[in-house]
Specification:
With 293 residues, the protein is α/β, with parallel strands linked by helices. It has 2 domains: 179 residues, NAD(P)-binding Rossmann-like Domain (Rossmann fold, 3-Layer(aba) Sandwich), CATH 3.40.50; 86 residues, Orthogonal Bundle (N-(1-d-carboxylethyl)-l-norvaline Dehydrogenase, domain 2), CATH 1.10.1040.10. It is 47% helix and 15% strand. It is built from 12 helices and 10 strands. α7 links the parallel β7 and β8. α1 crosses α2 and α8 crosses α10. The longest helix has 20 residues. The protein is globular. It starts with a strand and ends with a strand.
Length: 293
């Protein structure tokens, strides 16, 4: 199946990034958000990325104009998805919310449309149970920042069709992503490893093993990670990491996945990382500055 129109559900950090690269791939791209202010933030995020590219000489004004013409913004779900060949949901990691959205997608999207979810840990099978034909549902887990990160983790559940896999792989290639295909196991491949490393780094920080900066530097220089686990946790969002850990703890009935108390406290305090200006680091200046936690 050829992709002509893509709908992205949710205009947050991930949704805006996915919409951006879909527009850059040449597809008619409909970005939906139920909240006008969220939709406007998504629009501003995409525009700011392209403007920065122009300032750095990596993007031309002509390219921005072409990509912008591919984008449209919607507050009505039916209008966003009614002609879509591929829908990618990118709303918060709440299973009830995702199932409600997929139930609506089942009503409003064409029968041939492949339905992807950007979940980083929730069971694809559970999400797919909300649609009449679960074979067209597949996990499409992108990484932040979406325009820069090369990996796309595809997650198949038992009823995912080969067509859904083929379309998702082709879409990934068109977006200049390298795809991997994993089974529907809690945490998939990437989140399960990533959150455990991040949680342990937070434990080390709380125990006074080393400073946040030194823990991150150890992994960057000692293990060739492009970014340390604490800085990455701030970038992903402490609330997102916390929710994934809670899901793993429940799914495996294993308290070794329990979020560290420091992580829980930061989330309770509203210090969610870069998106709120503070997390493990202080991001008010635009760069990570160590905080006294």
């Amino acid at each position: 199946m050829d992709i002509e129109t893509v709908a992205i559900i949710g205009a947050g950090t991930m949704g805006a990034g996915i919409a951006q690269i879909c527009a850059q791939a040449g597809w008619k791209t409909n970005l939906f958000d139920a909240f006008p202010e969220g939709l406007e933030r998504g629009r501003a995020t995409i525009n700011a990325f392209w403007e920065k590219g122009i300032a750095r000489g990596k993007t031309s004004p002509e390219q921005k104009a072409e990509w912008s013409a591919n984008l449209s913004f919607h507050n009505e779900l039916k209008l966003a998805v009614e002609n879509a060949d591929l829908v990618i949901e990118a709303v918060p990691e709440v299973i009830e919310l995702k199932k409600t959205i997929f139930n609506d997608l089942d009503k409003y999207s064409p029968a041939h449309a492949i339905l992807g979810t950007n979940t980083s840990s929730i069971s694809i099978e559970k999400i797919a149970s909300a649609v009449g034909d679960p074979s067209r549902v597949i996990g499409m887990h992108f990484f932040n920042p979406v325009p820069l990160m090369k990996l796309l983790e595809l997650v198949q559940h038992e009823k995912t069709s080969q067509e859904a896999i083929d379309v998702a792989q082709a879409a990934g290639a068109a977006m200049n992503k390298t795809t991997i295909l994993v089974k529907n196991i809690p945490g998939f491949a990437t989140s399960r490893l990533g959150v455990v490393l991040g949680n342990e780094a937070i434990r080390m920080l709380a125990d006074g093993v080393a400073s946040a900066k030194d823990i991150d530097t150890a992994m960057v220089l000692g293990y060739r990670h492009p970014m340390g686990p604490l800085e990455l946790t701030d970038l992903v969002g402490l609330d997102v990491r916390r929710d994934i850990l809670l899901n793993l703890q429940k799914s495996f009935n294993d308290d070794s996945y329990a979020p560290h108390p420091l992580l829980q406290k930061l989330v309770s305090d509203g210090a969610l990382g870069k998106k709120t200006g503070k997390g493990i680091y202080d991001w008010e200046s635009g760069s990570p500055i160590e905080r006294n936690l």
